[in-house]
Amino acid sequence: MGVISQLWRHPIKSHGRESLSRVALAAAKTMPGDRVWAVAHEAAKTDGRAWAPCANFSRGAKAPQLMAIDAKYDEAAGTVTLAHPKAGEITFDPDADAAAFLTWVRPLMPDDRAQSAQILRVPGRGMTDSPFPSISLIGRASLDAVAARLGQPVEPERFRANVWIDGLTPFEEFEWVGKTIEVGGVQMIVRERIQRCLATTVNTSTGERDADTLGALEAGWGHKDLGVYAEVVTDGEIALGDAVRVV
C-alpha cells in the first residue's frame, strides 16, 4: 500500500504545473483543471472539436523552455497565471486572450519548430496524452531508481503526473495494469503504462536539457516507461496522505 505524496494539475497542456492538496474527481473525467486547454501549433491538424494526439500541440519535448513554467488557475475568474524565469509572468483568460499569451510565449519557442498558433479547449474533457480521460500516477520509488542510475537528482515535475505515491517498490505501479485501485475515496482502473518523451530530459527550473532519463530507463530496465494511466470509475475526493491500494 502507498500514500499520496503530491498532487498536480496542468491547466494548459505542457505550459506549467500547479500543486494541490486535495481534489474532487468524477467518473470517466480527467482531473478538474488539468489540461483544460492545449496550445495548437501552426502545423496542427485539429480544430479543437475533439481530442487530438499530442503531436498537434506545442510541448516540452520539442520546446524545452516550456518545462520551466509554473501555473496557477483561478477557476472563479477564468484566468490562468503563468510564470517563467526568463519570460516573467502573465495572467490571462485562455478563452479570450490568446493573442497576449502567444506574444508572451513566443520567445520560449525554438525558431526551427512549428510556432504556437491558438489555444484550444475540448468541452467536457482535458487534453491528456491518452485518448481516454486519464489520471496519471507514479510511484516515487520508480523515479528514485532512475535518479540513482543517472547519479543525479531528478525532480518529479519533469514527468507531469497528477498523483505521486510514496511507499511502493520501484515500478510496482506497472503491476496494477488491468486492476482496480482505490485512491483515497476513489476507485480507478489502471489502463496502461506511460511511455516517456524528451520532455523528461529537461530541468524544470532552467528549461535546459540536463539528464538522459530515457537512456537511463532503456539501459536499466529495457523500456522508456514511467508511471501509469488510470481511469476514474467512482466519484470522490482524494488528498495528500490518502492511502492507495489494489482492491
Cα-atom Rg, whole angstroms? Answer: 17 Å
Give the N-to-C terminal Cα separation.
11 Å
Shape field: globular
CATH domain topology of the largest domain: M1 Pyruvate Kinase, Domain 3
Strands in their spatial order, largest beta sheet: 1-10-9-13-12-11-15
State the total count of DSSP E strands.
Answer: 15
Count of spatially separate domains: 2
Largest sheet: 7 strands, mixed, barrel
CATH H-level superfamily of the largest domain: PK beta-barrel domain-like
Return the structural class.
Answer: mainly beta
Give the CATH architecture of the largest domain.
Beta Barrel
Q: Tally the helices: what do you get?
A: 3
Q: What sequence of helices (H) and strands (E) makes up the elements? A: EEEEEEEHEEHEEEHEEE
The level 1 CATH classification of the largest domain is: Mainly Beta
How would you describe this protein?
The chain is mainly beta. It has two domains: 2-29 and 130-246, M1 Pyruvate Kinase, Domain 3, CATH 2.40.33; 37-121, no CATH class. The protein is built from three helices and 15 strands. The protein has helices spanning 98-105, 140-150, 213-221, and strands spanning 2-9, 18-20, 22-25, 37-41, 70-74, 79-84, 88-92, 116-121, 135-139, 163-166, 180-183, 186-195, 225-232, 236-239, 243-246. The strands form four sheets. Strands 1-10-9-13-12-11-15 form a seven-stranded mixed beta barrel. A three-stranded antiparallel sheet has the order 5-6-7, with helices on one face. A hairpin with an 8-residue loop joins strand 1 (2-9) and strand 2 (18-20). Helix 2 (140-150) crosses helix 3 (213-221). The longest helix has 11 residues, at 140-150. The chain is globular. The termini are close together.
